[in-house]
Structure formats: C-alpha cells, structure tokens
Amino acid sequence: MAGVALASPVWLYQLWAFVAPGLHRSEKKYAYAFVGTGVPLFMGGAFFAYKVLPTTAKVLMEFTPNGVSNLLPLDDLLDLVTRMVVVFGLSFELPLLLVMLNLTGILTGKRMLGWWRGMIMGITVFAALATPSTDPLTMLALAGPIWILYFGAVAFSLVNDRRKRRREAEGPDDDEASELDLTPRTSVRSRPCRRTGRCRSSRSRTGSTVMTT
Q: In which residue ranges is the amino acid composition biased (Low complexity) (predicted)?
C-alpha cells in the first residue's frame, strides 16, 4: 500500500495520458478542475492524518499496563501510518464526488441536504471502521472534517442548482432554441417561359429521355 501511495504521481499521469486524447475541450476543462481540487484535498487529508498520528499513538500506548514495555514492530508502525494517510486522504475526496454527481445532473443539492442525518451516521460508522485504532479521538478526527466537507459540497450544489434554474428561466439553450427544419427545398427558381416552343420542346425531350432510361 505504501508503494501504491508513493508511486501515485506516476500511474496517475499514465492514466491521464491514456484518457486525455478522447476528451473534448470542455471535458478537459472539467477534468483539470477536478484534478486540481482532488490533489489538494487528498494532501490535506494526508497532512491531517500526519498531525493526528502522534496523538493516536499516545492514546494506544496508554492501554499498556504499568510495568510492561510496549514494543511496536516497524512493519506494524509503517502499516498504521500508511493506512491512516490513505484512509484520511480518500475520505477527503467525498465532497468532490458529490459535486461531480451534482454537475452531471445525477444528484441535486436539495436531495443531498435531505440525506444529512443518514450521511452523518454513515460517515461516523465509516470513520469507526476505517481507522486502524479503536480510540474515539481518531474516529472523531476523521469524521469531523468529512462532516464539514459534506455540508460544503451541499452548499455548492444548492448554489449550482439555483444558477441552473435561473439560466433555464432566462431562455433555452442554443441547441433547444429552434428545431431543425430537415424538409428539402429546391434552390433553383423556375424562369418563366418566354417562348412556348422552347419550353414544350425541353419538356418533351426530358420526357423522352426518362422513357428511354
């Protein structure tokens, strides 16, 4: 897991190099915005885990009985640090996922706001299961920022939905402004026949050519 986290810039660049040629200019703009937001969120979660880690280790050491020395193996320590960094970093990506679903029209801000009780409970349960330690301090340290980020994503979605309704009320989009008229029209205007003889001869010739073919 530590190798995956350390090598993330390389395989993320390779993934982007594979996906980018198939995206339009507007899609690339959204992709740049999400990547530019997702990386700081992940780094913020990792930094928060780094700050909480000493307190978590201190709380775990307090469970050791008096007169007993607690020696933590290096492998277990590295696994604890890596798991906390990855879990905190990925958990901080929740608002980005919610905003993405709102921009694509899958979820509305009103619906996400109606889920706030279930989301608080779900985030709390996730924090209790995802944190490697069993102390409530680490659980609240993970759940608290996710609660704040969740309500921030809900506020952004509500503003975005209001902007969409205002835009729809002002007028339809360019694609919906007028229907396409696919009825074929002749662009050649028929000239009046000044000489009836020529018009009759041309009509007779046309009819004869059609009959022969």
A: 204-213
Q: Which amino acid is at 182?
A: L
**End-to-end CA gap in the chain:** 77
Q: 28 is in which domain, residue-wise?
A: 2-63+84-169
Task: Please report the DSSP string for 72-93 in residue order.
Answer: --HHHHHHHHHHHHHHHHHHTT
Say which residue the tokens 């995802």 belong to.
130
Phi, psi of 168 (to 5 degrees): -70, -30
155-211 residue pLDDT tens: 999 999 999 888 888 765 544 444 445 555 554 454 555 545 455 544 444 444 444
Structural domain tally of the chain? 1
In Å, what is the CA distance from 155 to each residue of 95, 96, 124, 166, 206? 11, 13, 21, 17, 72
- Tokens 């696919």 sit on residue: 182
37 falls within a domain: yes
- Distances in whole angstroms, Cα of residue 73 to Cα of each of 6, 58, 91, 121: 21, 16, 27, 34
